[in-house]
Amino acid sequence: MHRAGNDYRQQGGPSPGLEKLLKMLPDKSKDFNGTEFGQAVGIAYFGKRVDAGVMRNRAQQLSTAPPEQQCEIAMVMAEAIESTAPDRDKYFQTDEKTRDLVFNGSKWRSGWIFLMGNSDHSEPAQRFRQRNFLVFAQNGAKLKDVIDLGPRETAAVYFLQIMVRYAMIWGGISPGDDHEMAHFLEKDMSGVVVAHGKLTPVEELLLVGLMKMGAPAVVPNDYPWDFGRYVRVEGTDRIVEAATKFPNLRVKEIQGKIIELPGFCNPANTKAEFNVETTIGGVDSFFILRPGNVEDGIVIPENNDLTDCGTVGIVIEIGDKRLDLSTSEYIEGIALRGISTITGLRAERSKEGEFLIHCAKGVKPEVSIIAQALQKWIPYQFPYIEKVFVKILIGEDAKKERLSAQEFQTERKKIIENESDDTVKYFHYCIECQPFSKVHVCIITPNRPPMCGRDRFQVKAAALFGASWHPWKRRELEGVEMRGAIEVGDAIDVNYGEYHTVDEAIEKLSPGHIKRVKLHGLREYPHTSCGCFQFLAFWIKSLDGIGIMERDYRGEAPEGITWDMLANAAGGKQTPGITGVSRNYLRSKRFMQGEGGLEAVRWVSPRAFEAIKGLLPHPDKVRVGE
Ligand code: SF4
After folding, report:
1. Over pLDDT 90: what percentage of the chain?
2. Would you identify the CATH topology of the domain 274-417?
3. Residue with the nearest Cα to atom 6 of ligand 1?
């Protein structure tokens, strides 16, 4: 849905932004200097450098597509255009500079602000600096203490280059996996874009690109579209107020409560590489998080230095009645990362079951610091969680508790394995993808894990305890959480996975667009699809069965079906005969149960085959694409 604006926006005509970029596109782009990623944006989207011919073709194919589909190629073209600008080195931030910005920006500052557009940014720049933000600006040459990204309407690409390198270097996200990259950046990047004043059509398109890659935005009242993660306000006071409320920033305000990590913690450290000098822990050591009848608190041994402690045990108990056993395993994994936010420490559990804390040269692992980090990190990740109690044990005390910790973890594993759609009281929903897939509602159950490949407990934990990302939702959904619980109740059809309560929820959350959904069905009322699906399942009429195609597959399925055809038909809607699925759902015992399950599969692309090959009841009936 487009808001009032220029004609092309209302009529879906050729985009003037894309047309202008096409005119400016050089025949050959160049690598930027001082970076491992010579063309970071192209590499982030496509996994490799993109040549001008490919860009032109893609842009021409998308000339009348909605902006959320055009924005990626627009960004890649903007990078190519800037790469040939004679003054590009003035605005490009080298890897070394980016490392400084990332650490300074996310550790010592409230976050990064990018002031976009050609207006005079001096007033908001000053106000954001006063609030301790690192400020980048288009047209920022004359501004004090601001990183100028240049005067051109393609300047936003320099900010995106920083974002995607943050994701690829610190987030460990693979080049080309732009969906995962966007989810990582939504969550972990402490940056906000402010569209300040009137934007040109090129700038509008690039702004959508920044939003789609995870940056929340403050936009003016005439922002032409009703999608993206944004707040619509004007005037410096309101802009500053709105931008500083986004919860991806390092200092968060949740329901009037300020949540801040201690100064010695930095989320960027969790991916930082260092040479390990000493390692503490081993097979006798353990790290556990479980529900408990506790209040906030810390209990630590007298000896504050873990260096020679031999065995270490960390027990975190959560005195929040909403925490169940199965969700505690997921939160335990996230909690472990809290230790790695401390500079020079990295915690891990090896495959052999050892709990280890690695230390960089000269870093003393202090018990009190670790306990404080854990106690703040957990509510930093799950803002509504209550009562976090951390106990650290060393030596014989740790050894004594180890057995009961292990027994608890084994028992919990069994409980999780036995969960199914029939045994749980609640399913969960997620509408995080609605900013770009407007009627999409993910319903997440033990037997239908999220199509984007996320752990289902990530959604469940966020539904129970909130999460530190995604401030935007549609106005019709004010007051509705981005993820939540749905009481299962009576089924309309267990086989197809249709439930009264799920239908009611999806109608409210879509809102009003989707009235029924069959969680394990395909031909009628299938699950809606966003754009993050790992695979698409689709009905092949001529074979009277199911096809499964992996993301970006370049071959053809029977009937000449291609990935683009399927993805365009499914994206952002409910399309009978096509639905998004994840690898985990392909392996679910309820995969498309209503349509005959794996028995009804007739064609698969190679990666889909890899995912299910040991599970197919009749592999001889399944054709595998090339
Ligand atoms: S695909 Fe579904 S579960 Fe994954 S982020 Fe989008 S809405 Fe949430």
Report:
1. 66
2. 3.30.1650
3. 433
